[in-house]
Amino acid sequence: MMHGEINSLDEVKNFKVDKKRRLHSASHEEIFAGWTTDVYFVRTKEILRHLNLEETHVSAEIFATRPGILAGIEEALALLEGRDLDVWALPEGQPFAEKEVVLRISGPYNLFGMLETSLLGLLASSSGWATAAARCKEAAGDKSVFCFGARHVHPAVAPVMERAAIIGGVDGCSCILGAKLLGKEPVGTVPHAVFLIVGDTLKVAKTYDQIMPEDAPRLILVDTFKDEVEESLRVAAELKERLSGVRLDTPGERGGVTPGLVREVRATLDLHGYSNVKIFVSGGITAERIPPLVEAGADSFGVGSYISRAPAIDMTMDLKEVEGKPIAKRGRIPGITKTSRLQKVF
User: Fold this and answer.
1) How far apart are CA 247 and CA 159, in angstroms?
2) Residue 100 to residue 82: CA distance in whole angstroms
3) 173 and 82, same structural domain?
4) Are residues 46 and 159 in the same domain?
5) At what angle do helices 228-239 and 259-271 cross, to 10 degrees?
6) Residues near 5 by beta carbon (within 8 Å), at least 6 away in sequence
7) Residues facing residue 326 across a β-bridge
8) Given the DSSP bridges, would you call strands 172-173 and 144-147 parallel, antiparallel or unpaired?
9) What pLDDT digit, counting tens, does each position of 205-256 carry?
10) Does 53 map to a domain?
11) CA 220/CA 243 separation, integer angstroms
12) Contact, 61 vs 101, CB < 8 A?
């Protein structure tokens, strides 16, 4: 047992949530200690201790129920690190097939049994997000895709989600911590709120250009007050070659950003000599919507809920050996699964 890990049902019964607690998310310490586990693993610990079997040497494998892109393995390994275990894993960012083993653990059951719930959750959620991000990037081809999904999930997991999206292949994300976890800088300009407060798109664009760092792209929202084509031309005429692009985020109440709108903005900018100005599209973007928008002239995309709401890829942990003997529940194949893709981690 690791220091601080739950050791009995009495500890569970006596555990009280601090009344001063302001957020419901688990802390790192609570996750490592096992407070986010399913309680039946504590019951398992008590039974095995009573039978003097808690140190039984086992081999366990985690496999996925459907294909995807693996993410979350770094956190999973952090939970296992420092324990006297042998661990093999598929590298983060790798594609995996249905039923493929992505993680194998070998050692005394009491050193990792309590972690099963957390291990599966880490891999399931992150792999779901990474897989959705990969679909968007594949649909976009050589066009840029950025994850803007932090506002759609609990803030405690927003950086996990956006980091997973980058692992899945997108070019960046807006969440500050999500980007920093991978040594990147967050991406984004300004929201509609600043335009509504200032009252004029052009004034915001001019101020942005004046006060923002030189390495900040001059990418301006053009759908707040006026027709997107008219506003694009006003901004382009003011910033000229300093304008990197215009962002179309037309709300669903007005039909959203359509291929026809993108085509019109692109053609109008080109006709007036602003072919250097790129078109960035956001607002309800899905993998299915991206190809026709690319064909119409869109250069990059901000994707939010399509990634953040992606279903987790269910992961399952099976014991495959007990004291060196092949074993499995009915319906599964006993013994270690043959694979050449796993890498020894520790």
Assistant:
1) 24
2) 26
3) no
4) no
5) 40
6) 32, 33, 34, 114
7) 321
8) parallel
9) 999 999 999 999 999 999 999 999 999 999 999 999 999 999 999 998 999 9
10) yes
11) 8
12) yes
Question: Cα dihedral sign for 50, 51, 56, 59?
Answer: negative
Joined tokens for residue 8: 């009995």
Number of Cβ atoms within 10 Å of the Cβ of 202: 18
Q: Which of 191, 141, 187 is nearest to 166 (CA)?
A: 187
247 and 206 in a common domain: yes
Cβ atoms 4, 29 nearer than 8 A: yes
Given a contact cutoff of 8 angstroms between Cβ atoms, the answer to whether 44 and 117 are in contact is: no
Phi (first) and psi of residue 56, to 5 degrees? -55, 130
The single-letter code of the amino acid at 151 is: R
Count the neighbouring beta carbons within 10 Å of the beta carbon of residue 151. 12
Cα distance between residue 296 and residue 57, in whole Å:
59
Tokens of residue 161, six digits? 């989600």
Q: Are 336 and 321 in contact (CB under 8 A)?
A: yes
Is residue 152 classed as helix, strand or coil in its secondary structure? helix
What does the DSSP 8-state code read for residue 312? P
Joined tokens for residue 308: 């953040």
Please state the pTM of the whole predicted model.
0.95
| 3 lies in some domain | no
CB distance 25 to 156 below 8 Å: yes
Starting at the edge strand that comes first in sequence, how are the strands of the sheet with 315-322 ordered? Answer: 325-326, 315-322, 57-64, 101-108, 86-89, 343-344
pLDDT tier, 3 (very low <50, low <70, confident <90, very high otherwise): low
Beta bridge partner(s), residue 63: 101, 316
Determine the Cα–Cα distance for residues 205 and 283; give it in Å rounded to an integer: 21
Domain of 21: which CATH number?
A: 3.20.140.10
Q: Are residues 303 and 237 in the same domain?
A: yes
Q: How many domains does the chain have?
A: 2
Interval 97-130: pLDDT, tens: 999 999 999 999 999 999 999 999 999 999 999 9
In whole angstroms, what is the distance from residue 14 CA to residue 214 CA?
57
Measure Cα distances from 218 to 107, 285, 300, 333 in Å.
55, 22, 14, 57
